[in-house]
Amino acid sequence: MSGFNVNYNAGGTVDEVNNIKKIEKIQGFASFTQPYNKMIKISIPGIIGMQEIEYQTPDFPVEMLAITVSATGYGEEDFYNMYVNEELWFDTWYLQEVKEGLFLGTSTYVKVLEPNTPIKIDFFNQSGTAKTLYIGFRTLREPENENDNN
Fold first, then answer.
1. Where are the domains of the chain?
2. Which of 14, 77, 78, 136 has a CB 3.0–4.6 Å from the CB of 68, allowing a cystine?
3. pLDDT tens readout for residues 79-98
4. Are 148 and 34 in contact (CB under 8 A)?
5. Is 90 exposed, middle or buried (CB count within 10 Å of its CB: 0-12, 13-18, 19+)?
């Protein structure tokens, strides 16, 4: 007699479905779908020293994807420290010639921030040149309209 035998694990499909359900318990996946992006523009005077910049996230929860930082007339020694909710996220971070995206999240991971989360930047103008600093916040939020989720 010729042929072959097939073994089928009856619990296999059930186990796979249960594993898929576990994904809901993993933290950090984006759950909001509507982009909300904000940019601030700060004038830095032409003097050597530190300037403190304060920003608060909107009055609704957001999922932070990235922060972009660029400046006109930057000097190679100019740098900043960035704090989110008084926690140091970027320490002695030097400016670069092109806009830099500081990616804090991806399409598979985001940082959730509560409404009105404080963000503070201590900018050290070591070059002493006047410049304009541009800081962009790329986030997701819940849709304002239920139909936006389709």
1. 30-143
2. 136
3. 999 999 999 999 999 987 66
4. yes
5. middle
Q: Which residues of the chain have pLDDT under 70?
A: 1-2, 6-26, 97-108, 146-150
- In sequence order, which residues have a C-beta less than 8 Å from that of residue 147 and are 6 or more positions away? none
Question: Torsion angle of alpha carbons 21, 25, 28, 33, nearest 10°?
Answer: 50
Using CA atoms, how far residue 71 sits from 41, 54, 88, 119, in Å, is 9, 17, 21, 18
**Which pair of structure tokens corresponds to residue 80?**
């900043």
What CATH number was assigned to the domain covering residues 30-143? Answer: 2.60.120.230
Q: State how far the Cα of 57 lies from the Cα of 114, in Å rounded to an integer.
A: 8
User: Strands, E, within 5-146: which ranges?
Assistant: 34-44, 49-56, 62-71, 79-84, 87-94, 100-103, 111-113, 118-125, 131-141
